[in-house]
Amino acid sequence: MDKIPLAEFIKSLDSDLEIKEGKQFTEVTVPPSKLHSLASQLRENDETLFDFLDCITGVDYGHDLGVIYHLYSTKFRHTVVLRTRTADREHPQFDSVSDIWEAANLHEREAFDLLGIKFASHPDLRRLFLNSSWGFPLRKDYVDNDIITW
Amino acid sequence: MPFDIYDFTSFTKWIDTSLENAMSPFWTTVTEMAIAGVLFILFYAVVGLFLVYAERKVCAFVQNRLGPNRLGPYGIFQTIADLIKLLFKELIPIKNADRFLFNLAPYIVIIVNFMVLGAIPYAKGLHAIDFNIGIFYIIAVSSMSVIGVLLAGWSSNNKYSLIGAMRSGAQIVSYELSVGLSLITMVIFAGSMQLSVIVEAQRTGWFIFKGHIPAFIAFVIYIIAGTAETNRGPFDLAEAESELTAGYHTEYSGIKFAFFYLAEFINMFIVASIAATIFLGGWMPFHIGTWEGFNRIMDFVPPFIWYLGKTFFVIWVIMLFKWTFPRLRIDQLLTLEWKYLLPINLVNVLIMAFIVLMGWHF
Amino acid sequence: MEEKAKDIITDEQQEYIINIGPQHPSTHGVMRLVVSLKGEFVLNVEPHIGYIHRGIEKMCESLTYPQIIHLTDRMDYLSAHINNEAVCLAVEKALEVDIPDRVKVIRTLMSELTRIQSHELFWASYGMDLGGQTCYFYGLRDREMVLDIFEETTGGRMIVSYNCPGGVMYDLHPNFRKRVKEFIKHFRKVLPEYDDILTNNVIFHGRTVGIGPLPLKEAIAYGITGPSGRASGFSCDVRKHEPYSAYDRVKFNEVLFTEGDSYHRYLARVEEMRESMDIIEQLIDNIPEGPYAVKMKPVIKLPEGEYYQRVETARGELGVFIISDGNKLPYRVKFRTPNFANLSVLNHLVKGFKIADLIAIFGSLDFVIPDIDR
User: Fold this and answer.
1) Does C40 touch chain B (CB under 8 A)?
2) Counted domains in chain A
3) In which domain, by residue range, is A95 found?
4) Most CB atoms closer than 10 Å: which of B208, B247, C286, C357?
5) Cβ contacts (< 8 Å) between A25 and chain C: which residues?
């Protein structure tokens, strides 16, 4: 599948989505409520078949917290980027996609550990690298009290 | 007879009678035991140190390295330096360990070693004790070392140690069977359990040559099972460095660790010397049929050298095993014993009995 | 009364829990596996990671792009050059710089040498994990030759830091071509030796064939890439599907198996060493002349946007994701490291196998712990 039909196809799944052709990949912005259903449609649909979850990146945009998903299809060899964001910094929560791709399990735990983004219905959401009293270091407002200055 | 130039019987008899002339029979026995004890402790230490050095050199040879080469010529003092280091190391007390059993375990292993070493004939007339049930005694005593290993694993209060000890228990109990049966094959052939008689019977030819194919099969099985019984690679599951860090002796330090370490090497020495005694003619020189000149030259090599040469040949083979094969898994190990070695061994005993019955041997 | 006792002793309480790690000979680094056992059988494995988490992604946010490259060496230290290359490619793609052919070929050659030395160390340590300690010395002996080649050209042996945006730091050493040819000649001779020692060993077969099988579907779902994924039949070689540097001009086969057990994961790596040698042989006599780097601006600022670059390291697909806000410092850098993704499958693979198999499976996935922790 080429780039343009992929964008058109995703548009046909849900016309409310904001779809942009990026420099590299087709980029889709999804509201958090639609994330899980869109992800499972992209995974199951024979036209797209995004069966390989490449990467989950949590991002702090200053006001908002967001998650970026890189999906890849091993059959069609195309990539799509899903983004979603929320303005709630206290309890940011998205639906977990770990029931669609098992690979998401560790990636989501990492995003939780470093950015404090929660994933609903994740089977095992615990801190991954750091202990539970640590802050969320990848947030832009994180202050490291132990930083050594010279 | 030419070999009797190295007969130690008259020498030991002379010591015995001169001691008896000097003191009462009770004190004679005590003194003789003390002499034998000191000699064995010396022998034990020297052999242990040499084997550690040999292991390193063989391992280095296999692995394309040089091995120890700094301390003394060819690094021969390396193991002595290591021993001194181990003597000075702290004995770390383990919290919640069963202190009594923890300290007892290395001694059990060492004591078993000594008990077996005493029964092996090193040359004509040179052995501490010559039982008429020598082989039976060796099989019985050597299987006791598993108690030491189990105690060490149990009392350390360490989960790795316990798994290692349990594996070791299963392994030794299983392979004990093969060792026993392959020795019984040779007992049938020799018609005696006394080790000096067995060696004497090999004057006309070593059992591995005289005993046809069954003797050879018994020898191969004995080497495999013996390697397994000493917990050496490829059967070193009890220690399994990459799985259980060090298995049953994980928690031991200093000289107590050294005891286990030494005992492992002496066990290997014992297995090799039993193989040499029963299959390769013990201290008997190598003879070829009617080549009188050749046989005469062989006779002039002292029997002790013959014995050590054969033993170290077997040790060398066992060492090569360890450094070339990967480790087996516990179920594969037990499968090998119960499904392959044991049935082969049982059939082998029957064939040997049949051969002896029909008189088809040399 | 009896019934009550039965209730108290549930299956869970009969589990025998041991900690493999943080310091353990076969985790090859600081990582802790909490293993629940029943007898010798593994019920559950829970990896605890983060013992060497250095926050590389956080550090990247306060470093310039040329500085970031030197941090990537410290992730997968056995694929140091390939990691560097990934960041450079991402930066170059963002700036739309045309890099000279010579640079492309040099990078490809170095990447393949890196891959060979990494797989050699895998071979060596895998042998040792399974108890064949001799393998370790054979593997290291030959790896040393590659490290010497690195040292001559880059000044570093393992942590090479050879790439910079727009090219490489210095030109190849005059001895490079001769040394590489010597190495290839030597290595073609010793690879059959490797097979004699380990690949064709009966005990080794017994320990690895059919142990921890990973079907294709699961490999894709868990995101297993690299030789481990290709052993399951997952055609995931980035060099083939999205060629970068000079991979579009060389011929090589993607090593694919379908069994996906430990033995084939091992075999995929051994075969890849052969393929890597083929690639090097095709390129070593055709290194184009030209500059070894293009001149870049002293301060590199990426235009605003997101940039994703995949490369094939020795262990799988490394993704570098850079979000730039137009500054000289990146806004967010994410490394999709192969080992981190591969780790997710461990518990799934080892369930029901024995503790000795756990080591065999763990070894065959070839983890480098700093790459997991970052």
Assistant:
1) yes
2) 1
3) 3-120
4) B247
5) 308
